[in-house]
């Protein structure tokens, strides 16, 4: 998606030339977006606040919350990037409005699983990353067609911001997956779980904490902090349960590549073989060759 690429480049500028250049770059590329999402607004007001543009930061915040009806989970406003505006009354008004909407959303938040009928012999379930949703997942998987596989999508009930969701490390990911997969696992011969970013972490928690049979997992840009505390148990469980794994990661993914390296080192120690694709000059994003890698993984492992 265009938004993901723009935000990825913005992050690169933040880490490289600084927030002012990143802010100017993001503003200059807004016209390329069909709409400004809650995530983009978050970048805008945070970058403005850290670039000595407090007035613009407040204007972006008011546009997002007061004009567009957007809301955020309360933790978003604890970001140290916003220190220069936290005492401003306009900021406090926006936070209050956002928190009220967030609390209202909590009352009806629920997991959304797109599966409503059995159409194929096998099932592949896609989990989004943080600050994403099923629609975003579908945009990346739309051209992936697998023989005898039904591709469905599972959206977390954990709120991130307006129309965006997350899988918290200490959240209810395992419970959500277990509740939904228990209902349908016996309806299919094989089940593959695929995650992007934090969705991968949710999958690994699920693998070691439940006994539901899974044939394979696909970890794309894997944000897997669980590997730091339970890494050996994870790879031992994958090996014991004979779960096939495809891991796709960019070597420029500053947060996830080191976690992949830890996973790989533990796999070598335990003797767990998995399929990996490390893409050169790629950051934290979906692989452009997703179909090729996924179809190859499924066919090679005869799943």
UniProtKB/TrEMBL annotation:
<dbReference type="InterPro" id="IPR029058">
    <property type="entry name" value="AB_hydrolase_fold"/>
</dbReference>
<protein>
    <recommendedName>
        <fullName>BCE-2095-like N-terminal domain-containing protein</fullName>
    </recommendedName>
</protein>
<dbReference type="InterPro" id="IPR054527">
    <property type="entry name" value="BCE_2095-like_N"/>
</dbReference>
<dbReference type="Pfam" id="PF22316">
    <property type="entry name" value="ABhydrolase-like_N"/>
</dbReference>
<feature type="domain" description="BCE-2095-like N-terminal">
    <location>
        <begin position="5"/>
        <end position="104"/>
    </location>
</feature>
């Amino acid at each position: 998606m265009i938004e993901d690429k723009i935000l990825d480049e913005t992050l690169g500028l933040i880490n490289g030339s600084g927030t002012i250049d990143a802010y100017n770059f993001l503003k200059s590329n807004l016209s390329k977006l069909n709409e400004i999402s809650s995530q983009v607004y978050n970048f805008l007001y945070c970058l403005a606040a850290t670039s000595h543009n407090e007035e613009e930061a407040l204007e972006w915040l008011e546009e997002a919350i007061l004009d567009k009806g957007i809301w955020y989970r309360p933790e978003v406003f604890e970001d140290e990037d916003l220190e220069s505006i936290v005492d401003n009354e306009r900021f406090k008004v926006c936070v209050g409005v956002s928190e009220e909407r967030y609390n209202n959303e909590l009352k009806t938040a629920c997991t959304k699983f797109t599966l409503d009928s059995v159409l194929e012999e096998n099932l592949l379930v896609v989990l989004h990353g943080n600050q994403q949703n099923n629609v975003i997942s579908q945009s990346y998987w739309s051209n992936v067609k697998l023989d005898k596989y039904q591709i469905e999508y599972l959206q977390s009930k954990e709120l991130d911001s307006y129309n965006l969701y997350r899988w918290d490390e200490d959240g209810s990911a395992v419970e959500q997956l277990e509740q939904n997969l228990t209902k349908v696992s016996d309806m299919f011969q094989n089940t593959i779980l695929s995650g992007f970013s934090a969705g991968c972490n949710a999958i690994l928690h699920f693998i070691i904490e439940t006994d539901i049979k899974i044939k394979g997992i696909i970890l794309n840009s894997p944000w897997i902090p669980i590997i730091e505390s339970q890494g050996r148990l994870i790879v031992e469980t994958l090996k014991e349960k004979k779960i096939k794994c495809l891991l796709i990661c960019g070597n420029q993914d500053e947060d996830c590549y080191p976690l992949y390296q830890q996973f790989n080192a533990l796999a070598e120690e335990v003797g767990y073989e998995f399929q990996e694709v490390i893409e050169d000059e790629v950051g934290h994003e979906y692989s452009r060759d997703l179909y090729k890698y996924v179809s190859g993984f499924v066919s090679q492992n005869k799943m």
